[in-house]
Amino acid sequence: MATEGITHRTVPVNGINMHVAEKGEGPTIVGLAARGYRAVAPDLRGFGDTDAQPSVEAYSIFHLVGDLVALIDALGQEQVFVVGHDWGAIVAWHLCLFRPDRVKALVNISVAFSPRKPNAKPVETLRSIYGDEHYIARFQEPGEAEKLFAKLGTEFVLRRLFAYRTPGPFFLTAELLGSPDHQVPLPPWLSEEDIRYFADKFEQSGFTGGINYYRSLDRNWELSAPWTGAQVKVPTKFIVGDLDLSYHTPGVQNFIHKGGLKKFVPLLEEVVVMEGVGHFLNQEKPSETTDHIFDFIKNF
């Protein structure tokens, strides 16, 4: 795990203490230090060394976006470049939806923008498509997933999640997770040092903070009603792996490639589908991903 030249500090933002790692000087990217930029990577609330409140109510989309706005203020910046992946991408989409004035340009990875459907709550929709064993459905009951993960062990759970490369839905079943008695081999892009570091961080504050993001999905749907039909008006590039499970969600590929994403993100300039790459493409192909990011933001 390369950490040379990275500094760490804790920043008070939006009523919590947020841990950030920083490297480089120049225009600020929240999320290419070696290329003349100041890179700032925050642990979102509930993760790593940032505060992790146990209450689901503390993880609304307004809390999450508010954290980033406060972080941008704390960095002394009017505007920043933003790079997001997975839930970081979802929060970044909403940062640009709510506060486009604070973002110069956006590169989002893995999770495409999902416009609010006024007659379809997210969790109900997922249950109707995939059933109760889908991981998001299983995450809804407070404490259930935490008990399962505690039984299996933090490192085993993370190994299983990072090793998952099936381009389809993820079901949280005993059959899929397997037994902790059987070693799960790590993908070649992840070292034993990496997995131990991640496990240590999750053992520090548990999985509840991260799972609360999913438990807030329906509440966020209710809170975001005023933005039904609203567009993300920030210059954007979107990158996804062709083996990413999110890319194989029903309807997503048509939405991305047949005008839906462009309709709701009118300043979308490029979509990149990386071949042979799964969900963690920024770790699987770090140099290629960095090139894609730099090639876009250097234009601003």
From TrEMBL:
- Tell me the route in metabolism or biology where this protein functions: Secondary metabolite biosynthesis; terpenoid biosynthesis
Question: What domain of life?
Answer: Eukaryota
Write down the chemical reaction(s) this protein catalyses.
an epoxide + H2O = an ethanediol; (24S)-24,25-epoxycucurbitadienol + H2O = (24R)-24,25-dihydroxycucurbitadienol
**Record bears the keyword Plastid:** no
**InterPro entries documented for this protein:** AB_hydrolase_1, AB_hydrolase_fold, Epox_hydrolase-like
What GO molecular function terms would the record report?
epoxide hydrolase activity
Record's keyword terms, sorted? Hydrolase
**Under which main EC class is this enzyme filed?**
hydrolase
- Its EC number(s): 3.3.2.10
Q: Which residues form the AB hydrolase-1 domain?
A: 30-116
Family statement: Belongs to the AB hydrolase superfamily. Epoxide hydrolase family.
Q: What does this protein do?
A: Epoxide hydrolase involved in the biosynthesis of cucurbitacin and mogroside tetracyclic triterpene natural products (e.g. siamenoside I and mogrosides IV, V and VI). Cucurbitacins have cytotoxic properties and exhibit deterrent taste as a defense barrier against herbivores. Mogrosides are nonsugar highly oxygenated compounds used as high-intensity zero-calorie sweeteners; they also possess pharmacological properties such as regulating immunity, lowering blood sugar and lipid levels, protecting the liver, and acting as antioxidants and antitumor agents.
Q: What is this protein called?
A: soluble epoxide hydrolase
Please name the source species. Spirodela intermedia (Intermediate duckweed)
Q: What is the lineage of its organism?
A: Eukaryota, Viridiplantae, Streptophyta, Embryophyta, Tracheophyta
